[in-house]
């Protein structure tokens, strides 16, 4: 059983009550207080850290109830947000698609059934479900077999036309092409486990006598494995897919089991290979090859699988900062609003949503923040956080944000190792963001007096030494904020840097963080 101090429990209860309340409809006139001046002085001191001497730092703190600005520095400057971009994508998706939105994956008959034979093509049609597992494709194949089909005389058609054929973001780094966090975006895809990193395969190695044994999750022959690794006294192994190919080369030494998430080169081909293998397992033989194309008009449905609703998908998406979910939802929004499953159509939906909610400084190039050309201001992020409090989906969205100091991966998410045993633990609900030289933290915190606050911290262009502890110090200080009294922040300001990694957990698999 986990033990939690009474003060942390009390803080969490105060936060829950504060954020369950609806936003005020009218501003409350509050006189400047010693508490606000004290807060300003302490944040300024935190930001005086030598690691930020040549860096850019933008910070905004506002009262969520009144809109009063409590602290601001470079609030209007456009900065690289990294995964704080997901705040805009997820909020726009909740508004545009709705919390009940699901991704259907269907199997269609494009021919005539004669006895146990389908004289024509079998079509697998996707709409972008990032949660499809090998077992889900297996269940679809079982339904085809249960319909009495044992032979398909035509082709297996993979219909991924719900989205366009652009697979990678135009600004994404070339050397990220094989990384699971930059996997190809397709309307047909598959994830290896319930983190739902769609478009990737887990490649595992283990010493087996004097040889290195290689396995994959899911079991698939889609990848070509070239195993050059040897058994050694320590594990120092590299598992890497070669660019623009299906070949994974494994080199180095293996003593202890190790695994790596590897992006596939073609998500549609990968998914359809899993389905074809499942068909064969269930006794359904397809004579023709697997091809891509649109289902013909008049094709009839044989089987369907629906994803979890968006209300549930928000949890792995935001808690684990899943880039692929962000991009799939972006294209899904474009498809719903304009009939075009493209980045440009989806980004227009997200941008229009932000502007309709008072956001001014915004430049969205993708849905995840992987692009270094994304640009937001701290003030714009704070404005979004304030505006969405009145949305009917806010409570679900708020609970899907990472929660500081909670060790459960699907509660604490990318903040699970941060701000533990502080007033911010169980209190701060916020989105992290990480790129090389970029870190951000934006979200909500309840003050010591129960006042709901929104904040955005954006740090750009630092050269060395992770400044995530600076974000944490500010967030903890906000959790201690009082309008009526000054706070002795000296112990916090002297606190050594935390062991928080320079990049958020979603970038660091399989490392534990």
UniProtKB/TrEMBL annotation:
Enzyme category, top tier: hydrolase
Sorted alphabetically, the keyword list is: Carboxypeptidase, Hydrolase, Protease, Signal
Q: In its UniProt record, which GO terms are filed under biological process?
A: peptidoglycan metabolic process; proteolysis
According to its UniProt record, the EC number is 3.4.16.4
Q: Which residues form the signal peptide?
A: 1-20
A Pfam family the protein falls into:
Peptidase_S13
Query: Any idea which GO molecular function terms this record carries?
Result: serine-type D-Ala-D-Ala carboxypeptidase activity
The family database entries (InterPro entries) matched by this protein are listed as: Beta-lactam/transpept-like, Peptidase_S13
Top-level taxon of the source organism: Bacteria
The entry sums up its family as follows:
Belongs to the peptidase S13 family.
Q: What is this protein called?
A: D-alanyl-D-alanine carboxypeptidase/D-alanyl-D-alanine-endopeptidase
Q: What gene is it encoded by?
A: dacB
């Amino acid at each position: 059983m986990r033990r939690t101090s009474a003060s942390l429990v009390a803080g969490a209860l105060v936060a829950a009550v504060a954020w369950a309340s609806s936003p005020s409809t009218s501003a409350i006139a509050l006189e400047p207080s010693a508490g606000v001046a004290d807060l300003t002085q302490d944040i300024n001191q935190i930001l005086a850290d030598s690691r930020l001497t040549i860096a850019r730092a933008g910070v905004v703190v506002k009262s969520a109830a009144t809109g009063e600005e409590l602290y601001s520095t470079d609030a209007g400057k456009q900065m690289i947000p990294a995964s704080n971009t997901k705040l805009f994508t997820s909020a726009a998706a909740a508004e545009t698609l709705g919390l009940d939105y699901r991704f259907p994956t269907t199997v269609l008959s494009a021919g005539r059934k004669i006895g146990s034979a389908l004289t024509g093509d079998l079509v697998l049609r996707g709409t972008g479900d990032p949660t499809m597992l090998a077992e889900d494709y297996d269940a679809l194949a079982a339904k085809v077999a249960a319909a009495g089909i044992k032979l398909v005389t035509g082709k297996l058609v993979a219909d991924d036309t719900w989205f366009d054929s652009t697979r990678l973001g135009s600004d994404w780094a070339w050397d990220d092409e094989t990384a699971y966090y930059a996997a190809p975006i397709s309307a047909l895809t598959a994830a290896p486990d319930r983190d739902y990193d769609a478009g990737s395969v887990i490649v595992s190695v283990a010493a087996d006598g004097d040889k290195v044994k290689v396995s994959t999750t899911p079991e698939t022959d889609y990848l070509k494995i070239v195993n050059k690794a040897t058994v050694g006294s320590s594990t120092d192994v590299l598992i890497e897919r070669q660019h623009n190919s299906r070949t994974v080369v494994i080199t180095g030494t293996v003593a202890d089991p190790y695994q790596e998430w590897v992006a596939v080169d073609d998500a549609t081909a990968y998914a359809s290979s899993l389905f074809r293998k499942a068909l064969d397992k269930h006794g359904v033989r397809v004579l023709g090859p697997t091809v891509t194309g649109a289902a013909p008009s008049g094709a009839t449905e044989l089987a369907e699988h629906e994803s979890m609703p968006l209300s549930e998908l928000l949890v792995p998406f935001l808690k684990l900062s899943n880039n692929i979910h962000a991009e799939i939802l972006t294209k899904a929004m474009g498809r719903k609003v304009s009939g075009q499953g493209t980045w440009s159509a989806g980004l227009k939906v997200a941008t229009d949503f932000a502007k309709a909610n008072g956001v001014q400084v915004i430049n969205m190039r993708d849905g995840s923040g992987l692009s270094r050309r994304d640009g937001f201001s701290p003030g714009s992020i704070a404005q979004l956080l304030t505006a969405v409090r009145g949305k009917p989906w806010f409570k679900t969205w708020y609970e899907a944000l990472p929660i500081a100091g909670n060790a459960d991966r699907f509660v604490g998410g990318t903040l699970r190792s941060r701000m533990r045993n502080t007033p911010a633990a169980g209190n701060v609900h916020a989105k992290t963001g990480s790129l090389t030289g970029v870190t951000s933290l934006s979200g909500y915190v309840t003050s010591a007096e129960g006042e709901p606050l929104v904040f955005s911290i954006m740090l750009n262009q630092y050269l060395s030494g992770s400044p995530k502890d600076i974000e944490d110090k500010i967030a903890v200080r906000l959790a201690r904020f009082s309008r009526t009294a000054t706070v002795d922040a000296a112990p916090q300001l002297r606190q050594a840097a935390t062991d928080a990694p320079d990049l958020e957990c979603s970038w660091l698999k399989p490392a534990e963080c």
